[in-house]
Amino acid sequence: MNLSQMRTSLRTRIGSPSTTDVPDANLTGHINSAYQEIFNKYKFKRRRARAKFSTIIGTNKYDVHNLTDVIFKVWDRTNGKELEKVGSNALASQDYDASPNALVQNARPQKWDYVETYLQLLPPPDGVYVIEFVYKITFSALTADADVPLIPANWHRGIVILASHIYYDDEGGDPVKATYHSNKFKDWVSDQPVEEHEETEAIDSGVEVPTLAAQRSPSRGADGVWWDILP
Questions:
Q1: Domain extent at residue 116
Q2: Is residue 117 part of a domain?
Q3: Which bin fits 130, alpha (ψ -120 to 50), beta or left (φ > 0)?
Q4: Which of 136, 168, 202 is the last residue of a domain?
C-alpha cells in the first residue's frame, strides 16, 4: 500500500470520521509514527544499504552521519579484507586523536568503530584504500500520497493496525480502543516472518545433514588390531 491507501484504511479502521473531524495530515502523522516504530524495531533487509569511499593518507575519521547512525560491517575492498569491529576500549588504548600522532603509525587499516558521527579506521591509512560498509538506512517519513514504506508489502497492514493504536492513544482519547489495537498488533506481528529468519531457514534447507552409518570403537580386538568400524 502507498500512503494514500494506508490513510484510507486507517480512516475506515477508526470509524470513518470526516476529514473535518480528523484531517488527513493527522492520519499521516500517526501512520509515520507507526511506520518508524516498525522500521526501527524489526529486521528488514530493505533498510540496509552499501556505500564506498576512498581513504586519505593519515586521515582515520570519515563523517557518515548524513547516511546513518548504525554501521554493520566494513571491508577494505582494495585488499579484499573484512575489518574487525572494535569498541571504546581499543580507541582508548592509544591516543588516535593526537595531532601530530607519533604514537600511531600509518598502515593498512585493520579495524573500525563508529564514534559519534564518523567511521574511524585503525590504524590511520598509509595509502588510498577503497572502504565499503553496510549501514542501516535512516528512516524517512512518507509525505506524498504515492510514497510506499521501505518494508515488505505484507507488513503494511501492520502499520495501519499500529497507527490505529496510536490514534486512539493520542488524538482519539479512547484507552479501551487503544489497548485493543495494541493487542491486535501484537497478535498480528507474532505471525509475520522476519527476513533474516527466512533466509537462515532457506540456507539450512539446502544442507544435507550427515548421518552416522557406523559407530567407531576405541576397543582393540582379540588379535591386537584396532577395530575401525562396528557393524
A1: 47-136
A2: yes
A3: beta
A4: 136
Show the cell assigned to 74. 566494513
Decide: 136 and 65 in contact? Cβ < 8 Å. no
Q: How far is CA 139 from the centre of its chain?
A: 11
Q: Would you list the DSSP string of 7-71?
A: HHHHHHHTT---TTTS-HHHHHHHHHHHHHHHHHHS--GGGEEEEEEE--TT--EEE-TTT-S-E
* 3-state class (DSSP) for residue 111: strand
- Counting the structural domains of the chain, the total is 2
- Preceding amide of 175 cis, omega within 30: no
Say how far apart CA 155 and CA 160 lie, in whole Å. 9
Give the pLDDT confidence of 102-156 residue by residue, as tens digits: 556 899 999 999 888 889 998 899 999 999 999 988 888 999 999 999 888 989 9
According to the model, what pLDDT value does residue 174 have? 94
Q: Do 125 and 87 share a structural domain?
A: yes
What percent of the chain has a predicted confidence (pLDDT) above 90? 54
